[in-house]
């Protein structure tokens, strides 16, 4: 292993830190590797692992620290695009993404995610990433969109990055992968003869030293450009996306000569008003939450979180029906608690604090939603570096993966898939041994260090604020040619201001370089938006001066690249013939259309220079007027920051030991330490490194005297459940933990016993007498996993409503469900329990003797019971079911009507059902209308 680059000594007072000097280009630190990976987030980590597994010597550069870098380090609540066999088909997914992106898709790239995504889920699971499963160990895929079941929750998603870092630090990987943290590349170096990528140039964000790398291949995995538009809060780093993602890879790929595509297709998301976090409909919707206007009406017609859906969202928000809310206040207490357990931990730990500060609670307040600032992102919209189905860019030996690459709506699993593809393909190259291009090195050196020549120049925060304010003023939708032209002029003018920024520290150099990347992305976004003279993707590219979609002229990818003269040139590239036909789109084919440089709209004067004021031209109202001829947690700490208080010496030694992937014997003294803080840290370290014997050791600490240690052990066991051997010692420890007074420990013990198939019906049934409600619910899940119907039925009299609801659902989830055990629950006094029991009949079967009570229940006073009854009738014979369901289409509650439509779709072979569905096409609720329109053709 090579020695890492030097870092400054911690704790040096600011006054003792000498002014940063500009290093000589000749004194650059030189590194070499077969495969260079830039960015240690989702795609970069996977690219490094795959390339190393295939024999390449890998160098992974990260401008922060790999352990905590990238958007993934913020936590992940689930997978948006899991194509799990038996639950979804790859071709259906490809068609869905084609529709979501208005036909502009290279289906061969999307199909890689569709066909390889499930294997990636299994690979991640083998690392220890936990995906939600049902009681029988099957993936608990949920349906969020109206077609296709692709959402796979991740109960321990907050720990995904920790799991990946553990893989990078495995001994066999450390022999192949060198990690250099705090190194920020600014330019990809290319060979002067054939243009292939041969390395990068950058600098160390703590010491300021210049760094050059020779590489056989370069993989860019730097994430999206999330720091493009300015958030409504005005905070530079209060962005929807991870604010460390400043468009580094977009700019580096562009200056290396690679083609970028779809840059006019922005990323815009729904988010919580005044909080830089998603509203998380993906989490809430499967629990029964939904998006409504201020009257409580569902309004979303689109079926996918696409630009069209955001256009509907923006229209509703701007109307007298706004504001818009994520509605959860109608949900029962136990459901809200489950939603809170996800949204306030995995997705954004500060979310609960935010709501608490406003005196809001999901039980009494729905969540006001708004619209995020604009950004560029291949994985959540379609703006990125052009890649093929192997993650290759148009520059030889240069790859792009993750949110940087244009594979529309690729999300987290797609980022992993393309990191894997890039690492696999790049592993065939060996380190470049020639001279690095001197002119490119000199240009990169000048880009990095010029702020040190102007220490009193404008500071980065001021310049960046001004730049991103222009983005909001002129580039954010709705777009016009005039505003976009003003944007180009502003960004061109600001090139000199950016060159004049001042800096005194290496951290400030990093921020100044990021501003140059943001400026490049802003110009690309403005010019690309000018070049596409149509509206497409709803709010993502809404041109007021070209309001219609034009498939004949513009069902083409819009590629941009840097010409030899340094100009930004565009090409309209035909969409490749579809692998999966989609009826709504027919790519016209034909040759590429060179567009050259984009022509700006004259904006120097308002109308003719010497003319008198003229009358406004009349329009129809639909036709456009004609066009005239703060602190960042993932970045480096500022030099001179006050040193943190020194932790205990044993904790420091433990942290250092963890980096060496210690075995259990090495950790044992810390696990047995008298100080509970040290024991808790050691248990957490055990979960991170997972040496042999981890399971029994963690189970033993479930009985620790200190609650912090017990909590850490429970969390680690649940996180590692997919990789722990189901050994007798672990089973014994978990069984002992069922007697621990701490309810959270007993819940975790049951959960792991069930997941690892280490318990039996007798053991689980004993926990039905536990005093803790959560324990009893886990016992119900465990009983389902062993198909213990008799024991389950015995819990139907549990005093807690939420347990009885779990029993009802569990009786439908056993492998051979039958309706008879549901009898006491169908007569339960609680309407939520009766509703759950009726809904369970859809899984157990609803023979005539149960169909009659279900029909009668359609008149129940509680809407939850009526919705459950409508659901039950989807499994009933058509004769009693269809007439009753047709009548239920007039129910006052939209969720009852929605359940009714879904059941009628199951009976669509019956002419009366089809007639009823046709009548529901005009329902006032958007969800009901959308599902009613899905009646299959006769």
From TrEMBL:
Listed GO biological process terms: anaerobic respiration
Parts forming coiled coils: none
Domain FAD-dependent oxidoreductase 2 FAD-binding: 34-407
Boundaries of every Fumarate reductase/succinate dehydrogenase flavoprotein-like C-terminal domain copy: 466-580
GO molecular function: electron transfer activity; flavin adenine dinucleotide binding; succinate dehydrogenase activity
Keywords for this protein: Flavoprotein, Oxidoreductase
Chain intervals for the UniProt region annotation (Disordered): 605-642
One Gene Ontology CC term in the entry: plasma membrane
UniProt xrefs under SMART domains: EZ_HEAT
UniProt keyword Kinase, yes or no: no
InterPro entries: ARM-like, ARM-type_fold, FAD-dep_OxRdtase_2_FAD-bd, FAD/NAD-bd_sf, Fum_R/Succ_DH_flav-like_C_sf, Fum_Rdtase/Succ_DH_flav-like_C, HEAT_type_2, PBS_lyase_HEAT
Biased composition (Low complexity): 606-642
Protein name: Fumarate reductase/succinate dehydrogenase flavoprotein-like FrdA
Organism this protein belongs to: Streptomyces gardneri
């Amino acid at each position: 292993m090579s020695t890492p680059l030097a870092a400054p000594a911690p704790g040096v007072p600011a006054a003792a830190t000498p002014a940063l000097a500009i290093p000589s280009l000749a004194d650059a630190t030189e590194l070499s590797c077969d495969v260079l990976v830039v960015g240690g987030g989702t795609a970069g980590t996977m690219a490094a692992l795959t390339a190393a597994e295939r024999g390449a010597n890998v160098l992974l550069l990260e401008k922060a620290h790999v352990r905590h870098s990238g958007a993934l380090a913020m936590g992940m609540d689930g997978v948006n695009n899991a194509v799990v066999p038996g639950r979804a088909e790859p071709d259906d997914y490809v068609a869905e993404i084609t529709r979501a992106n208005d036909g502009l898709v290279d289906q061969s790239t999307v199909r890689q995610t569709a066909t390889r995504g499930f294997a990636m889920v299994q690979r991640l699971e083998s690392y220890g990433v936990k995906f939600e499963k049902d009681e029988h160990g099957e993936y608990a895929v949920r349906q969020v969109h109206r077609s296709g079941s692709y959402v796979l929750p991740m109960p321990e998603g907050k720990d995904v990055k920790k799991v990946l870092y553990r893989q990078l630090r495995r001994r066999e990987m450390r022999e192949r992968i060198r990690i250099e943290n705090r190194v920020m590349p600014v330019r990809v170096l290319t060979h002067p003869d054939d243009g292939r990528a041969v390395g990068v140039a950058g600098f160390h964000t703590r010491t300021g030293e210049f760094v050059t790398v020779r590489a056989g291949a370069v993989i860019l995995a730097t994430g999206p450009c999330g720091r493009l538009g300015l958030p409504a809060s005005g905070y530079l780093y209060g962005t929807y996306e991870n604010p460390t993602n400043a468009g580094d890879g977009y700019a580096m790929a562009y200056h290396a000569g690679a083609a970028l595509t779809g840059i006019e297709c922005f990323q815009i998301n729904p988010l919580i008003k005044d909080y830089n976090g998603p509203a998380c409909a993906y989490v809430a919707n499967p629990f029964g939450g939904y998006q409504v206007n201020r009257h409580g009406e569902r309004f979303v017609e689109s079926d996918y979180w696409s630009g069209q859906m955001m256009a509907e969202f923006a229209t509703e928000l701007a109307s007298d029906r706004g504001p818009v809310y994520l509605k959860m206040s109608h949900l029962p207490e136990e459901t809200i608690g489950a939603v809170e357990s996800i949204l306030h931990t995995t997705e954004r730990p500060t979310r609960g604090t935010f709501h608490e500060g406003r005196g809001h609670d999901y039980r009494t307040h729905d969540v006001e939603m708004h619209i995020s600032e604009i950004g560029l992102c291949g994985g959540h919209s379609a703006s990125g570096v052009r890649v093929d189905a192997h993650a290759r860019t148009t520059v030889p030996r240069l790859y792009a993966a993750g949110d940087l690459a244009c594979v529309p709506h690729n999300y987290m699993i797609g980022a992993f898939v393309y990191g894997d593809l890039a690492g696999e393909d790049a592993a065939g190259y060996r380190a470049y041994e020639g001279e690095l291009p001197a002119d490119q090195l000199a240009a990169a050196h000048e880009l990095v260090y010029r702020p040190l020549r102007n220490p009193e120049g404008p500071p980065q925060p001021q310049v960046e604020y001004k730049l991103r304010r222009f983005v909001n003023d002129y580039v954010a939708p709705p777009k016009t040619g005039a505003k976009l032209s003003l944007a180009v002029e502003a960004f061109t003018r600001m090139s000199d201001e950016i060159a004049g920024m001042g800096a005194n520290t290496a951290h400030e150099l990093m921020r100044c370089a990021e501003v140059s990347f943001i400026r490049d992305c802003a110009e690309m976004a403005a010019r690309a938006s000018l070049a596409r003279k149509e509206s497409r993707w709803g709010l993502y590219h809404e041109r007021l001066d070209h309001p219609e979609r034009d498939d004949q002229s513009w069902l083409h990818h819009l590629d941009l690249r840097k010409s030899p003269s340094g100009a930004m040139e565009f090409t309209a590239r035909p969409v490749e013939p579809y692998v999966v036909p989609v009826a709504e789109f027919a790519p016209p084919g034909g040759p590429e259309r060179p567009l050259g440089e984009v022509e700006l709209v004259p904006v120097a004067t308002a109308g003719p220079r010497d003319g008198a004021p003229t009358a406004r031209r009349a329009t129809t109202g639909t036709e456009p007027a004609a066009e005239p001829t703060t602190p960042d947690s993932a970045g480096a700490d500022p030099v001179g920051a006050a040193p943190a208080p020194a932790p205990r010496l044993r904790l420091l030694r433990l942290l250092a030991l963890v980096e060496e992937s210690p075995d259990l014997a090495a950790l044992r003294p810390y696990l047995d330490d008298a100080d509970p803080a040290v024991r808790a840290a050691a248990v957490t370290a055990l979960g991170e490194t997972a040496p042999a014997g981890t399971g029994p050791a963690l189970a033993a600490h479930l009985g620790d005297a200190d609650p912090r240690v017990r909590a850490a052990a429970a969390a680690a066991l649940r996180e590692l459940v997919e990789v722990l051997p189901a050994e007798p010692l672990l089973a014994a420890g978990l069984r002992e933990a069922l007697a621990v007074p701490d309810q959270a420990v007993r819940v975790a013990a049951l959960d792991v016993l069930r997941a690892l198939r280490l318990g039996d019906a007798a053991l689980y049934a004993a926990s039905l007498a536990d005093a803790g409600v959560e324990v009893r619910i886990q016992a119900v899940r465990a009983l389902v996993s062993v198909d213990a119907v008799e024991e389950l039925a015995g819990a139907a009299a549990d005093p807690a409503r939420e347990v009885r609801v779990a029993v009802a659902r569990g009786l439908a989830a056993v492998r051979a469900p039958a309706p008879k055990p549901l009898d006491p629950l169908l007569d339960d006094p609680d309407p939520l329990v009766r509703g759950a029991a009726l809904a369970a009949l859809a899984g157990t079967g609803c023979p005539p003797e149960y169909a009659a009570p279900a029909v009668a229940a359609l008149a129940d006073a509680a809407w939850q019971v009526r919705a459950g009854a409508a659901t039950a009738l989807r499994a009933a014979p058509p004769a009693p079911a269809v007439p009753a369901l047709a009548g239920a289409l007039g129910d006052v509650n939209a969720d009852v009507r929605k359940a009714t439509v879904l059941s009628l779709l199951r009976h669509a072979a019956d002419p009366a059902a089809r007639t009823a569905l046709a009548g529901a096409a005009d329902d006032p609720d958007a969800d009901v209308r959308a599902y009613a329109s899905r009646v299959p053709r006769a």
